[in-house]
Each structure stands twice: as C-alpha cells, then as structure tokens.
Amino acid sequence: MNWIILIVAGLFETGFTFCLGKMKGVSGVEFYLWGVGFVICTFLSMGLLAKAVHTLPIGTAYPVWTGIGAVGTVLLGIAVFHEPVSFARLFFITTLVASIIGLKMV
Questions:
Q1: Is the pLDDT of residue 103 over 90?
Q2: Do 96 and 75 meet the contact criterion of CB atoms below 8 Å apart?
Q3: Would the pTM count as exceeding 0.85?
C-alpha cells in the first residue's frame, strides 16, 4: 500500500511543477489560482511522502519519489509546454526509469 502512496506522492510532485509552469505565462487572478494549486500539490506530495516512509526505507522512497516527479515533469513539458524532444532527453529519461525500477527491485 505504501508503494501506491509513494507513486501518488510522485504524481503530486509532477502536479506542483505543472502549476509552476502554468504560473510562468499568466498574471493577475490566474497567477494566484495556479499558485494555490502549487501549494496544494506540494502539501499533498510532501504529506504522502512522509506517510510512505513510515514503512519504506527513505534511501529508496526519496529517489523513487524524485524520479517519478522528474519523469512526469519532462513528459508534461514535452506534451503541454512544447519543450523539445531529442534522442538524448528520451535516452536519459529511460535510464532514470530503469534506475527507479532497479531501486524498487533491490
């Protein structure tokens, strides 16, 4: 169950970086609404991470949480913010995913 909590925490990490990306191009009320989304996602991400490490080793949980957030952020950047796609980016994201899976397995 705590692995599921950790995965959801990583998705909320992706959520707060998405909110930061959306804040970049707006102003006024919309800026503050995305800011509220950022705070909520940050709070949920950190809270769920704290819950997950009650039973998971911090040395495994933290890198997995960070990796999920990093991979999710890169993929959102490509899909939503039209960031460039290159072989090198995809290669290193793939190695990051492989490393996360490796940490889970050991």
A1: no
A2: no
A3: yes
